[in-house]
Amino acid sequence: MTQTIRKSTPAGQPGGNNAAGSSHGITAKGLKGGQLGLLAVVVLGISTIAPAYTLTSALGPTINEAGLQLPVIFLIGFIPMILVSLAYRELNADSPDSGTTFTWVTKAFGPWVGWMGGWGLLAANIIVLSNLAAVAVDFFYLFLAQLTGSPELAELAANKPLNVLTCFVFVALAVWISYRGMHTTKLVQYGLVGFQLLVLGLFVAMAFANWSTSETAIPFSWEWFDVTKIETFGQIAAGISLSIFVYWGWDVCLTVNEETTNGKKTAGLAGTLTAVIVLGIYLLISISTMMFAGIGDTGNGLSNPDNQENIFIALASPIMGPFAILMSLAVLSSSAASLQSTFMSPSRSLLAMSHYGALPKPLSRLSKRFSTPRTAIIAAGVLSAGFYAVMHVISENVLNDTILALGLMICFYYGLTAIACAWYFRNSVFSSIRNFVLRLLCPVLGGVGLFVVFLQTAVDSWAPEFGSGSEVFGVGLVFVLGIGILALGAVFMLIMARLRPGFFRGETIRRDTPALVVPD
After folding, report:
1. How many secondary structure helices (H) and strands (E) does the chain include?
2. Tens-digit pLDDT profile for residues 151-162
3. Residue 184 domain boundaries
4. What's the whole-model pTM score?
5. Best exposed site among 18, 236, 248, 255 by fewest CB in 10 Å?
């Protein structure tokens, strides 16, 4: 039996007589509900994280920072992820909304902070969409070369105009599938994610079976899980920042909460399950890869500069032999699947921000046939393709620089959402042990940890040698991308405050505190 104490809120304001039940003013946006079950949402989460794509992009840079401590870095990076996912579950159970970070941070801290949280999410997704397209292009031409036995086809990816044009084609296809709705998306994702996981399992099994035949092989050691072997905190921060990137994407499970059966419960559970499943995949791949290739800078070594940009390109043939083409196809399918599923987050966030008056109204338009945010999906596609084209011109290493900048974005908006959880539920955190752990302890630990990594990475990335060595007026490109895009968001926020002042006056979403439920 419980005693419930509710805050008094005027009618017409969040939580008042016009509010949508217990959602404290959250309103529907026209998305079709009940389209996704638990399995479908978990598949979407794994697809967005894209283990094959993520590791081929991030394994090399993470090895550079962590060395033999790669497995423990993955474990440390997982800790804030699981803590933040628990905060997301609490917020989603209270106020399921496709705006996620934007909506929840606005309810906790007000419209200005909420807008910046939404911008951080949008920026991270736009950056990663361009990164996904880059990997898809590389592996598309590699796959063609392996399929036809013409190595010169793989070199076409180095042709910048052709590379950018191919990227635009991949983005256009992803936009088309996303526009057609969840039914088409599910069919595509079940096939691509299933194939990706089967090939990764084969890769791990063959790496374990053949590790002793490699000239650079090293035996397994439990010292790989010893964090004290890492020399500096900067290494830990950089390694965690990179490992955060490889876990990022599970929050898409919460983004589709309005389209999920029993979205309050299913979406949050799917996010946590996705993170745990991916942790297991990463530990198996990192250990098997290190045993087979070692971390040296010659031959198959993971620190070899020739191997680092695309680890699976370098190791697929030595490990899988004639089956190497399957790995190329798996990474291609992984990046293509993630490119499509990742459109869920920015399109739903743009929809929510427009719906509540924080962005131009046309972004909230839906397709009458498919009930999808058509304008927001197209806008996300145009922005990601444009960002990729610009980055391909100014950066010497597009993948490395965008991954590092992406780590800054993820730390920012995940950390902000976690802290918002603790503040939003502040009146109930001492009502039970459960609430204390899930609404205060876990969110604060996760949020503070991510902000520490954010600050350390921001300081380190000021130097041009951080990342690929690319710079803008003597400042490292990673810093310019990460902090510069956040600063650009603040400028854009001021413009929107002039154009659409209603949201910033608290007329659509107001700072709110949920009902206080105290167990007897």
Report:
1. 20, 4
2. 888 889 888 889
3. 2-8+29-519
4. 0.86
5. 18
Q: Is 21 within the bounds of a domain?
A: no
Q: How many domains are contained in the chain?
A: 1
| Measured CA angle at 287 (ends 286, 290), to 5 deg | 80
Q: What are phi and psi of 471, to 5 degrees?
A: -145, 160
Is 304 within a domain? yes
Q: Which two tokens stand for residue 132?
A: 């996904």
The token pair at 489 is: 């968001």
Tokens representing residue 10 in the block: 């005027």
Question: Residue 390: left if φ>0, alpha if ψ -120 to 50, beta else—which one?
Answer: alpha
Which residues make Cβ contacts (< 8 Å) with residue 489, sequence separation at least 6? 116, 119, 120, 123
Length of the chain in terms of residues written:
520
The two tokens of residue 123 are: 């920026």
| Token pair for 318 | 């030595």
Residue-level pLDDT at 516 = 52
Q: 10-24, 341-355, 456-470 — which is least confidently predicted?
A: 10-24
Residue 290: HSE in the Cβ half-sphere, 13 Å Cα cutoff: 25
- How far lies 42's CA from each of 52, 141, 180, 185, 188, in Å? 16, 30, 20, 13, 14
Is 224 within the bounds of a domain? Answer: yes
Cβ of 202: how many Cβ atoms within 10 Å?
16
Secondary structure element (H or E) that encloses residue 206, with its range: helix 182-210
The whole-number pLDDT of residue 3 equals: 37
Question: Residue 150, Cα to own-chain centre: how many angstroms?
Answer: 35
Q: Which of 401, 197, 424, 386 is nearest to 309 (CA)?
A: 401
Taking phi first (over 0 means left), then psi (-120 to 50 degrees means alpha), and beta for anything else, what does residue 372 get?
beta
Nearest to 315 by CA among 408, 211, 386: 211
Following CA atoms 385, 386, 388, 390 in sequence, which dihedral angle do they give, to the nearest 10 degrees? 160
CATH code, 405: 1.20.1740.10
In a domain, residue 268? The reply is yes
